[in-house]
Amino acid sequence: MSQHQEKARIIRFEQLSADNVRLTLEAPLIAAAAAPGHFVMIRAGNGQDPLLRRPFSLHQASSNGQIQIYFRIVGRGTDMLAHCRVGELLDVFGPLGRGYRIDRQAPACLVGGGLGIAPLLFLAKRICQSGRDHHRDLVILGGRSSGDVEPLVEDFRQFGRSLQCATDDGSFGRQGLVTDVLKAEQLEPGTVVYACGPEPMLARVHRICVDRGLSCQVSIESVMACGMGACLGCNVDAAGGGYLHVCIDGPVFNAEDLVWNS
Amino acid sequence: MEFLKERGPYPDLRVNIGSLVLQNPVMTASGTFGYAREFEPLVNLHRLGAVIVKGISLAPRQGNPPQRIVETACGMLNAIGLQNVGVERFISEKMPYLRGLDVPVIVNILGDTVEEYRQLTERLVGVDGIAAIEVNISCPNVKKGGVAFGADPKMARAVTEAVKTAADVPVMVKLSPNVSDITILARAVEDGGADSVSLINTLIGMAIDLRRRKPVLANVIGGLSGPAIKPVALRMVYQVAGSVSIPVIGIGGIDSAEDALEFILAGASAVQIGTANFINPRVSEEVVEGIAAYVREHDLQSIRELIGALEA
Ligand SMILES: Cc1cc2nc3c(=O)[nH]c(=O)nc-3n(C[C@H](O)[C@H](O)[C@H](O)COP(=O)(O)OP(=O)(O)OC[C@H]3O[C@@H](n4cnc5c(N)ncnc54)[C@H](O)[C@@H]3O)c2cc1C
Ligand SMILES: Cc1cc2nc3c(=O)[nH]c(=O)nc-3n(C[C@H](O)[C@H](O)[C@H](O)COP(=O)(O)O)c2cc1C
Ligand code: FES
């Protein structure tokens, strides 16, 4: 995979909810090299504080040279990014990591919780573009309340998938967890589940898949300094003992290769 | 060539680290540049003065459990735990690529005992493509209750002697800043035969997660690096340069040509760039360009004129 460091111009700013922001950036080299599940490292500001880049999944990458990130404001770095304006340049580096391995034959079930929805739009698009029959595919999106889910529904609909939504407070879709929806669905044997979201959610998705004999790929997070295998700071426990590094072995893993606590 | 016409001849940036001649004084610091290959898509590796690889031990090491790193004000703490592939895999898997690079490769080594340092050095003897060895002595001496070799002048000297006796390439000893008088350690390794000293390694620190009332790092303590440590590093380089006669290599928080030039004025013959590689993978190359521009603008014959040229 080729990696690039680009000064990417912000061409669109969308405040999708009180906490959630979507940026569209002009980064032609990164866009051309990107695949679903890849991430980028972005510098918030130009100073020494905050020092490190912040990792974000690619929400979209298009053939017109644009990429999108979709993030929640949780701290200083994301707050600074949320205060950027259209026309400003961001220092972006990527695409990085190992993405989703798309199984072109199997039915797909995409499960996204909260900001874990971010990488799934790009994935839905690629699966759709793969041109096969996808009427059996399913997308399940969830979040705390409607602001986490509703603004993204149209984007997923254009890829023609059947869509189910759930929110913690019931303000959009049904009330409950994405895993409740997943449990209630009769997935065809051989379905591949592609998931991203908070760790407790992923642990439940993994459990459901194990129970039903489905294969499951998850995109996970860790703290990161370099994003490219140099600092060795992003390790997680591997199911077979030892460690895996999220930035180079992941961020997308087969769920069974990881250790799940819950 | 366009470049030469516009700005005159490329300035003389060569520096000598003992018998080792570098085309410029900018190296990448151990543990922050992987085994160099990771940076190939982004950096013109041949433009660097030297590449120093991740610390190697005799046997492979898994390193510490997560969480290993945390950002702090203008810096970061790490407790990687010296994860590495071990010397055999280093030689068979990493050296073939490194040896093909048009840049000197310096191998950083670490051990639990003096004997381990010696064996490691012996294993590296005759391995083609190694320009020098850098000895990380900031590791606990397991035979002496875990006190770091770098905190005890006798042990630091013993490690240096062991490596120097076995080595067939120049030996650079990397000093720990976690001591009360670093000049004593610098003189001890000079007496042990070190060809040069590099400093500083990370400063020991800690971060606490107030919400969970727990240390952030699984290892509880970790090494602080980045811009936050630069003033301490600069002071130590200045002191050490005044107390030894071997070349000094400055490390700590460097992320610009200005930073590097300050270390050179303080007495460093060369510098290493660490944490800054994570933020800007191209930083080392940019620092080389910045130093070249400075030398040109100030009509210097060579960068060597600036080494230790701090005015009183
Ligand atoms: C591969 C990868 C892809 C990611 N993709 C997205 C995405 O598409 N959208 C999105 O909103 N977020 C994503 N994240 C998380 C995002 O990187 C963090 O939210 C961001 O770094 C926080 O920066 P900050 O300065 O705002 O927060 P900080 O001030 O650094 O921290 C605020 C809070 O967030 C937590 N935090 C900080 N960094 C991380 C991290 N890397 N992972 C998890 N928690 C963290 C801290 O513990 C703290 O509680 C991703 C992380 C990784 C590793
Ligand atoms: C993630 C990380 C890993 C490191 N690993 C090593 C190592 O294996 N051996 C070593 O001698 N120094 C290691 N160091 C120390 C650096 O080489 C350097 O001395 C230190 O970070 C200070 O420089 P800086 O502020 O430019 O990063 C490491 C530093 C970091 C941040
Ligand atoms: S973030 Fe540096 S190795 Fe993964």
Provide the fold topology.
The complex is a heterodimer of chains A (262) and B (312).
Chain A: E1 4-15, E2 20-26, H1 28-33, E3 39-42, E4 54-57, E5 60-61, E6 66-72, H2 76-82, E7 89-96, E8 108-113, H3 118-129, E9 138-143, H4 146-157, E10 162-167, E11 174-175, H5 178-184, E12 192-196, H6 199-212, E13 215-219, E14 235-237, E15 243-245, H7 246-249, E16 252-254
Helix pairs in contact in A: 5-6
Chain B: H1 2-7, E1 15-17, E2 20-22, E3 26-28, E4 50-52, E5 69-72, E6 75-78, H2 86-99, E7 105-109, H3 114-124, E8 132-136, H4 153-166, E9 171-174, H5 182-191, E10 196-199, E11 203-206, E12 208-209, E13 214-215, E14 221-225, H6 230-241, E15 248-251, H7 257-265, E16 270-273, H8 276-279, H9 283-297
Parallel strand pairs in B: 3-4, 3-16, 4-7, 7-8, 8-9, 9-10, 10-15, 15-16
Antiparallel strand pairs in B: 1-2, 5-6, 6-14, 11-14, 12-13
Helix pairs in contact in B: 3-4, 4-5, 7-9
Flavin mononucleotide binds next to loops of chain B.
Give structural notes.
Chain B: Heterotetramer of 2 PyrK and 2 PyrD type B subunits. Chain B: Catalyzes the conversion of dihydroorotate to orotate. The complex is a heterodimer of chains A (262) and B (312). With 262 residues, chain A is an alpha/beta fold. Chain A has 2 domains: 4-96, Elongation Factor Tu (Ef-tu), domain 3 (Beta Barrel); 108-257, Rossmann fold, CATH 3.40.50.80. Chain A is 24% helix and 32% strand. Chain A contains 7 helices and 16 strands. In chain A, strands 4-3-7-1-2-6-5 form a 7-stranded antiparallel sheet. The mean pLDDT of chain A is 94. Chain B has 312 residues and is an alpha/beta fold. Chain B has a single domain (15-63, 81-202, 227-306), classed as TIM Barrel (Alpha-Beta Barrel). Chain B contains 9 helices and 16 strands. In chain B, strands 3-4-7-8-9-10-15-16 form an 8-stranded parallel barrel, surrounded by 6 helices. In chain B, strand 1 (15-17) and strand 2 form a beta hairpin. Chain B is globular and about 55 Å long. In chain B, 53% of the residues are buried. FE2/S2 (inorganic) cluster is lined by residues 224-227, 229-234, 245, 247 of chain A.
